Amino acid sequence: MMLQRIPLSLGILSLAVLTACSEPGNDAAGAQDRSAEAPAAGEVPATPRREFRIPPEGFEAVPERGAELFATHCATCHGDGALGSDQGPPLIHRIYEPSHHSDLAFYRAVALGVHQHHWEFGDMPPVAGVSGEDAAHIIAWIRREQRAAGIE
Questions:
Q1: Could you give the CA distance from residue 70 to residue 81 in angstroms, rounded to a whole number?
Q2: What are the angstrom distances between the C-alpha of 73 and each of 67, 69, 94?
Q3: How far apart, in Å, are the Cα atoms of 68 and each of 4, 39, 60, 143, 145?
């Protein structure tokens, strides 16, 4: 499967613009301010991940690897098969189609977290332990599953 690639410089610029346009409380500074507060028991601190890097141009994502990584890092909240749970929204849903939530939006969610905006599950914290390459595999799997469900 051939994934559409964007030049690395455009990807970095887009991520910077998305970060600057974050909703209040979801930008890097806001996340740092919140990180000073002690998280509730079992809650993940909302500190943005500074080491996160989008894979280089030409990186080949493998959807099968993405399915494994999703099961390990994402299914607890987003449910088996990314169909949602009582803790997080379904990603196999028209709201997350590429024209509404780009691949960069998914990378941004992993690296910076997401302020609640479509659903009533609360804010999503950054995802520790998922590299940019891991995220690319996960995104490739999500996009494949969306296409199989008629979401393009």
A1: 9
A2: 10, 6, 22
A3: 22, 28, 16, 15, 14
Q: Which residue has the tokens 């301010």?
A: 33
Distance CA 78, CA 84 (A): 4
Q: How far apart are the first and last CA of the chain?
A: 15
> Model confidence over 108-125: pLDDT tens digits?
999 999 998 888 999 999
Tokens of 77: 């909240």
What is the CB-side half-sphere exposure of residue 124 using CA atoms within 13 A? 26
For the chain, what percentages of helix, strand and coil (3-state, to nearest 5) are there?
Answer: 45, 0, 55
Rounded to whole angstroms, what are the CA distances from 24 to 38, 68, 74, 103, 123?
A: 20, 33, 25, 22, 12
| pTM metric for this prediction | 0.70
Cα–Cα dist 68/72, whole Å: 6
The domains of the chain, with CATH numbers, are 8-36+47-148 (1.10.760)
